[in-house]
Design brief:
The structure is a homodimer of 152-residue chains. With 152 residues, chain A is mainly alpha-helical. Chain A has a domain at 1-78: Arc Repressor Mutant, subunit A (Orthogonal Bundle). Chain A is 52% helix and 5% strand. The first copy, chain A, has helices at residues 5-19, 32-39, 43-55, 80-88, 114-132, 135-149; strands spanning 59-62, 68-71. The first copy, chain A, has a two-stranded antiparallel sheet. In chain A, helix 1 (5-19) crosses helix 3, helix 1 packs across helix 6 and helix 4 (80-88) crosses helix 5. Chains A and B meet through helix 1, helix 5 and helix 6 of A and helix 1, helix 5 and helix 6 of B. The structure holds a DNA duplex (30 and 30 nucleotides).
Chain lengths: 152, 152
DNA sequence: AAAAAGTCTATTTATACAATAGACTTTATT
DNA sequence: AATAAAGTCTATTGTATAAATAGACTTTTT
């Protein structure tokens, strides 16, 4: 049940953006280069990922000097599910239980297929977490943990 | 978060084995050929999968005429998690949250990594379902559904 | 001895993931 | 106007994994 590198890097970048405080009442803009260095990711690969996220409407960007990326919406309105699906596709382990991209699988009878029932549960469990966790939730959880540990 | 074909076929086969009633007080033995036909799976591919499951101690087999495969333990003692891990590897979406196969991922600080926290939740949600669902549970659910629908 | 089953390992093919490359566009600054 | 610093876009390559196929071998029953 692996998360791809694209998904991992994209989620990391978005989480980082959500945790970047606004400077001087301006937008919290971050460059590809900065993210790739902080997270140890190939800049070229990240570029593609952020572009995809931009085209999906989750990021905005500004070209030219002083430009960079910033969240298209407040962190509380961007769920991890949106990011995940944009980069990794459907959450469902098997197509016949996908809500966003249903396709029949090969079983003789979907209604009574035991595998389908269980995988439906798995899909729902994953989707519940990813769709109900926003970037704001993650940022808060991180800072709460830091506080609790007395770090930084 | 896809389930591989190996995983899918293996799970289907095991579920089928769990639903096969014993005939004449003998072991409920089923041949590769029969499973592959009923489930529309390449016999050669299934062969590998069942062998893997056998080597993992989940299936037993008998060679020669009248032979075939049968569950190594009662259906109530085989969880879907065991089958899944045997065929598809760790449940965790990211290595650093795997209980069975931990490996550090690249984040600067694991303790405060937001992605890791969420993926830990996802791992637990999936593992809870797969590890607490046995083949007997699946068989029961299937037959209950059939009964409710008045099928067969 | 023959037939019907599983065993084992190697090889091939297909697909998807990960990464790299390079030419192009926009914007700010000088 | 020129230059530099950013993002844009698409194509290509490399690599790993998944999926499938192949074939020679072993065991068991009749």
């Amino acid at each position: 049940m692996r998360l791809s590198k694209r998904g991992e890097y994209g989620l990391r970048a978005m989480i980082m953006l959500a945790g970047t405080p606004e400077k001087d009442a301006s937008l919290p803009m971050v460059q590809i280069k900065e993210i790739s260095q902080r997270e140890q990711i190939s800049a070229k690969f990240l570029e593609q990922i952020l572009l995809t996220l931009k085209n999906a409407g989750l990021l905005h960007s500004k070209m030219g000097i002083g430009g960079g990326y910033y969240l298209a919406k407040p962190p509380s309105e961007i769920s991890l599910g949106q990011i995940f699906r944009t980069l990794d596709g459907p959450v469902a382990p098997i197509k016949c239980v996908s809500q966003m991209a249903y396709e029949p699988c090969g079983c003789p009878d979907e209604q009574t297929c035991g595998l389908r029932m269980v995988m439906g549960d798995v899909r729902n469990a994953i989707a519940n977490i990813l769709d109900h966790t926003t970037l704001a939730d993650v940022a808060k959880r991180q800072s709460d943990t830091r506080k609790k540990l007395g770090i930084k």
